[in-house]
Amino acid sequence: MSSLLVVSAHAGDFVWRAAGAIALATSRGRRAKVLCLSFGERGESAKAWREGKSLTEIKAIRRGEAEAAAGVLGAEIEFLDAGDYPLQETPELVDRIVRVYREVNPSVVLTHPLADPYNGDHPAAARMALQARVLAQAIGYDAPGDPLGAPPVFFFEPHQPEQCDFKPNVLLDITPVFETKRKAMECLPAQQHMWEYYSDLAKRRGVQVKRNAGPNLGLPHNTMGEAYMRLYPQVTEELA
Ligand SMILES: [Zn+2]
């Protein structure tokens, strides 16, 4: 069975940027697993810090929110609690990610783009996700499970795409699951300011889905979209 693995630096990232892809996958009976390297406890939980919560409390809050969002999306979720701001790249953390690849055997991988001048944790997560993918492919790498194939990697859309060298060369129609994405976003009140922003973005990407699909598909007026960027070339037997 095909499966989706989402490597997310912080607890909320997978929701804003990839909830549509996750909900589409699970609605079609596919397995989806979210791997959160940290809770985003220091860098993406400003509201909770202002309310005087402790680090332990904030981690618990963010875990609960992300679990609820994953539940809405029908996805599994695992937290590695590797710490954020900064998210440290270590061989141990990469090894833990390799083991998740070997267990999930994903047919598709989603993660952050490799550039983000506003947030060093995001490219760090991407670098580790990519390195772990390559290591998981090696038959000689010492981790349980079979060597990984060559699942395509899609970068999901960063908050400020132009500055992150993000060019949306894949547009995903998420219209059938947009309400599910909205419900998942509403599981994250710690970042309530993002709900409308990412709903508006889905509308704009939806316009581009329609424009690039052309009129023959007859997509509806309210088409909603998510943008992705492929890292590796698409392999195909015919150009279509
Ligand atoms: Zn983040």
Automatic annotation (TrEMBL):
The keyword Zinc applies. It comes from the Bacteria. Its EC number is 4.2.1.83. GO terms for molecular function: 4-oxalmesaconate hydratase activity. It is an enzyme of class 4 (lyase). Keywords: Lyase, Zinc. The keyword Lyase applies. This is 4-oxalomesaconate hydratase. It comes from Kibdelosporangium banguiense.
